[in-house]
Amino acid sequence: MFNRIFLVLAQTLGLSLAVSSASADPNFWKFEWPKTNFEQTSVSSWIEIMSGGPPKDGIPALNNPDFGKASEETRIGGREPVITVDINGDVRAYPVRYLTWHEIANDTVGGVPVAVTFCPLCNSGITFDRRIPQGTLTFGVSGKLRNSDMVMFDRETESWWQQAVGEAIVGDLLGAQLKQLPTWMESWDEYRTRHPDGLVMLEPDFPRQYGRNPYVSYDSSTKPFLYNGEMPPHGIPALERVVRVGESAWPLTRLATLEQVTENGITLSWAAGQASALDAPQIGKGRDVGTVRVRDQAGNDLPHDVMFAFAFHAFWPEGDWMLGE
What we know:
Blueprint: H1 4-12, H2 14-22, H3 26-29, E1 49-51, E2 62-63, E3 67-69, E4 81-87, E5 90-95, H4 96-102, E6 104-109, E7 112-119, E8 124-129, E9 131-132, E10 135-136, E11 139-146, E12 149-154, E13 160-162, E14 167-170, E15 179-180, E16 184-187, H5 188-194, E17 199-201, E18 241-245, E19 248-251, H6 252-258, E20 260-263, E21 266-271, E22 291-295, E23 305-308, H7 309-315, E24 320-321
Parallel strand pairs: 2-6, 5-17, 19-24
Antiparallel strand pairs: 1-11, 3-17, 4-5, 4-16, 6-7, 7-8, 8-15, 9-10, 11-12, 12-13, 13-14, 18-19, 18-23, 20-21, 21-22
């Protein structure tokens, strides 16, 4: 995985890395991906897809992870981020200290097959329903990046999926869309205070330094890793967090100042207390980036993502920037 020195070197050599990745066209990838139908794709230029370093399954996705009671968990720091999933009364927390190293957890919550995903390079934590009309899918990590965002794959057809948008971009399932579920990222203290009897994913049985951040100071960088696209407009820093709801984005700095904003028929709230997973060497000691909740007029949680500004601009170039001006 990447440490700070590697990130600085990689960003310095970004152009040469991008050029070398261009030679990794589908004819080359077919050796690693013999089941993938590369004739079906929405990718306009294969240079958009780069190797992130690890090979297929080099970052091992989790399947049906084990859980324990929140009241009995002692490993997780109070400010550490977790992704909270609440479906049909089944409430579970997926600690980012584990998802940083696995990026996908395939699970079933409240009877719904889900994929809980976290892309560290985009700070994108999204939960998808794994069911599509063609059947229920199980996802893995391809090791590929597009606009610095994780490219997932399904094990049933080995089609490739863009994590940020939940859409199949290569393969037999081209154009299929995953339903994003209304989950959110919050601190461990917030979760266990509200759900002392809730469940929490237990530490996976892999030799990883769980709790350590392999991307030290990444969210203070000026340039994203393996990204050659346009920078965000309006002078917004590339790695500033924004809250994406549909095709609109609210800068987190604005929400942190106002603490609550009601626009476009939805209410976004911010509260201090959650550590950045991409700042300090230990996740729990990262600077405070706060917790965001997004609700409709009836108070129901809405699907959203807290992602970096460059990623929003890359995948929604015509998106609306909610700057309050």
